[in-house]
Amino acid sequence: MLEKERNLSDPTSEVIFHAYPQSPVAEKVRVVFGIKGLAWRSVEIPRLPPKPMLTALTGGYRRTPVMQIGADIYCDSQCIIRELERRYPSPTVMPTNEQGLMWCLSRWTDGALFDQTVRLVLGTAGDSLDKDFAADRGRLYLGEDWAAGLKQANADLPHLVSQLRAPLSWLNAQLSDGRAFLLGPQPAAIDAQFYHVVWFLRGRWADGPSFLSEFEDLVRWEDNVREIGHGTSRIMDPQDAIMLARNSEPTAVAGVAAHEPQGLLVGQSVAIKPDVNGGEQPVAGKIRYADAETVVIERVAADVGIVCVHFPRSGYRIDPT
């Protein structure tokens, strides 16, 4: 409780969440806020680029969500959830000893499973899909020739539904003994990781509710996760978030762990971007910290001062510059 009280009283330790309400990945993190009962500040960002107030903090990273604590900026839900668990260990989102397996499984829920869900939602939207939104998300999830990919997704709808039906049936079986959450009586990170896919299906696919109704135990679990809530949030102006970063000092430690496969060194200039061809701008900076899970770069800009931007190693490419 003392940790949470400090989060309210010390502006430099406040959790600031840059996202928009419709983002499924942001919903994943909001569930983690709920599990931990956190108070947090909400900065709403545009659904589509440009996102100048966000990229001022990140150095170009435009995906949703981003978490800020003072002058430390956390990109990708992997980094965000790990940092929340480190800072606020109780209630934990890792209630069993299978943390490694949960993180391994999360690379599938956030990767292939989520990508299939996005293709299904985009493929069923048809002419109702906003053209700018289609171009932006199509480029991210369907590649450079996204228009052809969108047509293929529409043609593949029965196949895509079948590919989602299998894992949902597995989840339903996992819950068939009446347990409240996937691992037992306590909610965990893996609940949030699967829930954001189900939340997206229900809310963004017209046939989602009828499709999900087949899985009675899954729907019961979905209700349990929804009831957790999102903690307590207060709106924050994006300019105030930038000013807070400028007036704060990063807290990231410096160093590189042993067995570094890319030979990274503290102070080395690098560029980081997602390890997919999504046409995204890399983020440039100097290595501050690196280990098997995380890389942190330090960057300096007139509008935000010195900030440290945290990325996962998994799913991101680091290139010397």
Automatic annotation (TrEMBL):
Say which domain of life the source belongs to.
Answer: Bacteria
Q: Which residues form a coiled coil?
A: none
One Pfam assignment: GST_N_3
Annotated GST N-terminal domain ranges read 13-92
Official protein name in the record: GST N-terminal domain-containing protein
